[in-house]
Amino acid sequence: MTISLLGCGWLGLPLGAFLVEKGYKIKGSVTDPMKFESLRRAGIDPFRVALTPELEADHPSMFFNCDVLIVNFPPRRREDIEEYHPEQIRNLIKAIREHGIRKVLFVSSTSVYPDINREVFEADELEPVKGSGRALKIAEDLLQQQKDFETTVLRFAGLVGPERLPGRFLAGKKDVPNGTSPVNLIHREDCIEIIYQIIKQEAWGELFNACSDIHPTRADFYSLAALTIGLAPPQFAVNPQTSFKIINSNKLKQRLGYVFKFPDPMTMLQA
Q1: Residue 165 binned pLDDT confidence (cut-offs 50, 70, 90)
Q2: First to last CA, the chain
């Protein structure tokens, strides 16, 4: 099976290397050819592909000649994100249809859910609050509405793993809000394994949340995260009113029979 991986950054590059080890032929894209060598070292065939929002690719017929396309690039931070990112996806859909790709995995985010102070599920019809969340929701819908190919949408919680040290985010800050809110996180190793299981088990046309099982408070997690790397822990405001959501991943676990490698975010800090 040939898999094209659109976006080989912090998650995509180790994902591609993992899939190579599993015996798949992997084509990976970056926007800067200077990164080609890092892909080659991982056994990934490198391509330059960009969506600006028009598709720009040196060899599109080669890159999009695949059995599965993994779409793994986040919306760019810009004022017109709600128009720009969906337009990127519309142009990508044209390429998917033109090259006859039948299976697509779209890496999305749990930022599509607003903070409504309860557990949230895939079936919830909720309106995102932030522009990036609204852009992602439009992109999800555009892909899943297509009849020429099947798309599985995978909504990851906050990403944790090598080179991403959450202890730096709030270290030393004072009067930090929402200290009692539960956090929603997932380790990169779980992200990679979940994507692999979706492909292996052919779980297409699905929508999955992906988040660790346990949800420690924001104060507990970020205090330990800072102390773990030798920084001063943040000081949280005394505020009984907090805004939160709890991401439920039961559908993913049941459909794939998946057991999280890092069910507790507190253990991610030692990984």
Answers
A1: confident
A2: 31
3-state secondary structure of 136: helix
At 108-122, the pLDDT tens digits run 999 999 999 999 999
Which tokens hold the place of 59? 């060899």
Q: How far apart are CA 13 and CA 37, in angstroms?
A: 12
Alpha-helical segments (H) within the chain: 12-21, 36-41, 60-63, 81-98, 131-144, 167-170, 188-201, 218-228, 250-256, 265-268
Q: Where are the domains of the chain?
A: 74-161+185-215+244-263
Reported as a single tens digit per residue, the pLDDT across 23-57 is: 999 999 999 999 999 999 999 999 999 999 999 99
How large is the C-alpha radius of gyration of the chain? 19
Rounded to whole angstroms, the Cα distance separating 148 from 28 reads 23
Residue among 160, 150, 169, 165 nearest 214 (CA): 160
Give per-residue pLDDT as tens, 217-235. Answer: 999 999 999 999 999 999 9
Which amino acid is it at 113? Y
Q: Looking at residue 238, what is its pLDDT?
A: 86
Q: Which fold has domain 74-161+185-215+244-263?
A: Rossmann fold (3.40.50)
**What are the tokens at 179?**
């200290």
CB atoms within 10 A of CB 26: 25
Contact in structure between 184 and 158 (CB atoms under 8 Å): yes
pTM of this structure: 0.96
The rounded Cα 115 to chain-centroid distance in angstroms is: 19
- DSSP category for residue 164: B
